[in-house]
C-alpha cells in the first residue's frame, strides 16, 4: 500500500507485467531497470507479483547493461583524471577531445535511455488502460 502511494504508475506497471506473457514481463522489467525507479523497491514488488523468474532475470540483465557500461566508463575517466593530478603528466589534445566527447556521449546515453524508458512505460500503461473498460 505505501509503495502504491509513492510510485503509483510503476507499481501499476509491475502488476500489469505480472498478468502479461513472457515478452511483456521481460519488457516491463527491462524498462523499469532503465528508468530511475529504485532497484530495491522493484525487487521487493516483483517478488509479490506473478512475474516469472526467466523474464525477470533476462529483463534485469538487458536493463542493467547500459547503466553498467556508463559506470565503467565513468570509473575509467576518473582514474585518468586522478593519474593526471598525482602522476604530474599532461594529456595530449587527442586524449582531451576523446575524454570530453566520451563524457558527453555517456551523459546523453544515460538521459536518452531514461527518457525512452519513461515514454515506453507510459505507452504500455496507456495501451493497457485503453483495453480495460471503465467500471
Automatic annotation (TrEMBL):
Query: Which InterPro entries does the record match to this protein?
Result: VTT_dom (IPR032816)
* All residue ranges annotated as the VTT domain in the record: 3-76
Keywords attached to this Swiss-Prot or TrEMBL record, sorted alphabetically, are: Membrane, Transmembrane, Transmembrane helix
* Membrane-spanning residues: 96-117
**Name of this chain's protein:** VTT domain-containing protein
Recorded source organism is: Aegilops tauschii subsp. strangulata
Lineage of this protein's species?
Answer: Eukaryota, Viridiplantae, Streptophyta, Embryophyta, Tracheophyta
Amino acid at each position: 500500500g505505501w509503495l502504491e502511494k509513492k510510485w503509483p504508475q510503476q507499481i501499476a506497471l509491475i502488476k500489469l507485467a505480472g498478468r502479461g506473457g513472457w515478452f511483456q514481463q521481460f519488457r516491463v522489467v527491462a524498462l523499469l531497470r532503465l528508468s530511475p525507479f529504485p532497484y530495491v523497491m522493484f525487487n521487493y514488488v516483483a517478488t509479490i507479483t506473478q512475474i516469472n523468474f526467466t523474464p525477470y532475470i533476462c529483463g534485469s540483465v538487458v536493463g542493467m547493461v547500459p547503466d553498467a557500461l556508463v559506470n565503467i566508463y565513468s570509473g575509467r575517466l576518473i582514474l585518468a583524471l586522478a593519474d593526471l593530478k598525482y602522476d604530474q603528466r599532461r594529456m595530449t589534445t587527442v586524449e582531451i577531445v576523446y575524454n570530453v566527447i566520451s563524457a558527453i556521449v555517456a551523459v546523453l546515453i544515460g538521459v536518452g535511455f531514461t527518457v525512452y524508458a519513461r515514454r515506453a512505460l507510459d505507452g504500455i500503461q496507456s495501451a493497457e488502460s485503453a483495453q480495460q473498460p471503465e467500471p
